[in-house]
Amino acid sequence: MIEKLNLEKTNAWPFVEAKRILKERKNSIEKKGKIILQTGYGPSGLPHIGTFGEVARTTMVVNALNHLIDLPKEIITFSDDMDGLRKIPDNIPKKELLNNNLHKPLTSVPDPFEKFNSFGEHNNEILKKFLNKFKFNYNFKSSTQLYKSGFFNSTLKIILEKYQPIMEIILPTLGKERQKTYSPFLPICPDTGIVLEIPILEINENKSKIIFDNNGKKLEASILDGNCKLQWKVDWAMRWYALDVDFEMYGKDLIESAILSTKIIKLLGKNNPTGFAYELFLDEKGEKISKSKGNGITIDQWLEYASPESLSLFMYQNPKRAKKLYQEVVPKAVDEYLDFIEKGKTQNELQLLMNPVWHVHNGKMPKEKIIMTFSMLLNLVETSNANTKDLLWKFVKKYKKDISENEHPIFDNLASYAIKYFKDVIIKNKKYRKPDKNEKKALEALIKALETCNDKMTPEEIQTKIYSTGKENGYKENLRDWFKLIYEVVFGDENGPRMGFFISFFGINETKELIKNKIK
Question: How far from chain centre, in Å, is Cα 377?
Fold first, then answer.
């Protein structure tokens, strides 16, 4: 157990949120003897990486709570699968089938993939499958199941009782036309199965029934057992109340909804959960990642190119800052993961609590010695022409004879990831520079300089030779351009590895031949 003093001092965000939960929800937690945290998912499209981020970050808060208090904790992953299908996602087959079932509850829409009983169930199962892949500890709950089983009935009765004051909270936030038709209760049409957004004519509180105006025709519906569902903001407050939620994080686009849901749950007689608004994920164009568009990078794509831990690290860092999330961010995330592992080896307890990898691994920091960065490994894949992990390992062992796969499981996995990432992503973006007369002369001077080096020299000594060569060949005032020239000619990119370290690993003669081939 880490010293109590350090736990109080740390301002790592999972500990900040954990302490806030214990303070703000003290009475509720003591009353029920456990802490309940919720994540929400709308299965109107395939789960995307933002959904993973919410569960991963909530799990980090649970890990922090485990160091602060000895009480049971539960993460509820709630699927709003009784919501009506409002639009057809871009990345889904059989669009005509979905179009014929618009506005029906997601669990009543046929599965276009023909694998499950409904589109909602299909997306729920995909969600559970990839959460299980990360071994998250969560309790899945379906909106449809809880509505139809009667679990929400008692709370729905309270909401019906508080109908008028709830309307007074919601109506001022709506336009004049929407105010005329708004109802917190949405009946499921007995004829079409569609979720209807229609105005209320009459309420029978004793029988828990409502009479709606369905285009001039009266529709009587019970609010119980899944015959009606609630509009989003009221539904969120009802869920907090019925499940007695202590903590929930949500995207900043839901801040206004959270404010209204907070007012509603207090009207129902309970305090709102501790909230945490995070910034949104963006694709390479700076647009919000969307389930229906399928833009950005998917969970499966990330896991083809890098470890689950590197993805968790990406989620940990700066949750209140908008971040672009696409294929090209993967190497940087992996290198940061490796760097934090290396830093952790010399950090004290308080520093470790601020180390993101401590939170990724729940306090169990990897001890593996880092051989090289992922970025350099990608360069090695290119220069060695290795197209299998075994070939890449043979090349590595040629220069590092004292290492083995068994002692370096992180690097062993990186080798496979690097080959896959290089083939799928990097090759497409390579733009090799053809040096002009003066640039070619400078690179030939570098080859001559390397002839005075040997494989026993340290990376720093080789790096000094490269600096000197650049200064002597027209780059004295701007060594950045010198290295940019080397990178663009040799690696097809304006950025590259620290050359002294790369050459000491790749070999002097091999590097000379590599440069010769590139300038030809």
Answer: 25
